[in-house]
Write a structure and sequence with these properties.
Largest sheet: 7 strands, mixed
Order of helices and strands: EHHHEHEHEEHEEEHHHEEHEEH
CATH class of the largest domain: Alpha Beta
Shape: globular
Radius of gyration: 21 Å
Strand content: 5-15%
CATH architecture of the largest domain: 3-Layer(aba) Sandwich
Bound molecules: pyridoxal-5'-phosphate
Strand order of the largest sheet: 2-8-7-6-5-3-4
Number of helices: 11
CATH superfamily of the largest domain: Type I PLP-dependent aspartate aminotransferase-like (Major domain)
Structural class: alpha/beta
Number of domains: 2
């Protein structure tokens, strides 16, 4: 840290992304990426001719991409916002709808970035404890005096709220924005998009990073009533109107056009997830019922950190959170069937070697 850093950021605790190792080839089950490549159409669309246009700025209105998303989700173009990953959009939402001196409410165990955005923008973070079984109690989010943010399915638990519960949270916060972060919704959750029509306070945030195999392209989108979207546009045009580059714009449009390819991949991942869940349970693991592309699991007799380390020694990367209530768990991204079979084999070895 230099002596020039603004006082406001001296104690800022930045987000720690999962490892992206360059040293050796791991079975990489640690950052919830898709194990499948983008569709052949997407690969073709990002062609050399588009690369040759990189001397020109991209379309700041992202018209084609917004149109494709609006068609896909039965909305109008002015109900769609796009930016450089959903983290970028969440950042804008904390700035626009909470801001300095404002408040935000989210579960104590959820996506770690929410807290960071609060610190960054001077928002008071109010963390509401999950229930004993790690589920969210909808009533805990009624009548709040600040923005409500819920990942559905939640991370890293993989557990879902029903649409009725989300609607009750919306109805009981008529004067607050409720952000539903649907990064994992394509893996078995129910989207709140249908509630936009009757709830002007709802902002649904999604990403191309997980179900659409484009974590490396950085593309996220938000859906909501046109005034909320206009607010986000205002922030985007006050920071970086060109936050989505030309290649990502092209890739995004083609990804929406090859929707069935991505939805089939989700079906495969769900099948693999349910298989791995069953196998781990028969190995004596406690596994939360996941609606996402990862599972959250623990086993008596071995600490989460040790399990993470033992897996890493044997070439498998998973994620461990050194945090109260969940430090015994590891989060395992669902890879291909072949990767998960290797993972299960290695887990068996570790259980034989390590579990007392
Ligand atoms: C992965 C993730 C994001 C971020 O996605 P990007 O679009 O890659 O920035 C947002 N929210 C949750 C809950 C996530 O797990």
């Amino acid at each position: 840290m230099s002596r020039f850093l603004n006082n406001a950021f001296i104690s800022l605790d930045a987000y720690t992304p999962g490892e992206q190792p360059r040293d050796k080839a791991y079975i990489k089950l640690n950052t919830n990426e898709s194990p499948y490549p983008p569709s052949p159409e997407t690969v073709k669309a990002v062609s050399s001719s588009e690369v040759c246009d990189l001397n020109l700025y991209p379309d700041p209105t992202c018209k084609e991409l917004k149109q494709a998303l609006a068609d896909r989700y039965n909305l109008n173009e002015n109900q769609v916002f796009v930016s450089n990953g959903s983290d970028d959009i969440l950042n804008f939402a904390f700035l626009a709808f909470a801001g300095k001196g404002g408040k935000a409410y989210f579960p104590d165990i959820s996506y770690g970035f929410y807290e960071v955005f609060c610190e960054l923008h001077g928002v008071t973070a109010n963390k509401i404890p999950l229930k004993q079984d790690f589920s969210i109690c909808a009533d805990d989010y009624f009548n709040k005096d600040g923005m409500v943010v819920i990942a559905n399915p939640n991370a890293p638990t993989g557990l879902c709220l029903s649409l009725e519960e989300i609607e009750s949270i919306l109805d009981n916060n008529p004067d607050q924005v409720v952000v539903i972060d649907e990064a994992y919704v394509d893996f078995g959750g129910l989207s709140a998009v249908a509630l936009i029509e009757n709830h002007e306070n709802l902002l649904v945030v999604q990403t191309f990073s997980k179900s659409r195999s484009m974590a490396g392209a950085r593309l996220g989108f938000a859906l909501g009533n046109k005034e909320l979207i206009a607010d986000l546009e205002k922030i985007k045009y006050s920071t970086n109107p060109y936050s989505i580059n030309r290649l990502t714009l092209i890739a995004g449009v083609s990804a929406i056009k090859s929707d069935s390819y991505y939805m089939e991949n989700c079906t495969k991942i769900i099948k693999t997830r349910d298989f791995v869940t069953k196998e781990l349970r028969s190995e004596g693991f406690y596994v939360l019922p996941s609606s996402a592309n990862f599972i959250f699991a623990k086993k008596d007799g071995i600490e989460g950190k040790r399990l993470y380390e033992a897996l890493k020694e044997k070439g498998v990367l998973v994620r461990h959170f050194n945090k109260e209530r969940i430090s015994d768990f590891i989060r395992i991204t669902i890879g291909t069937d072949a990767e998960m079979k290797s993972f299960l084999q290695i887990i068996k070895e570790i259980c034989e070697e390590e579990v007392k």
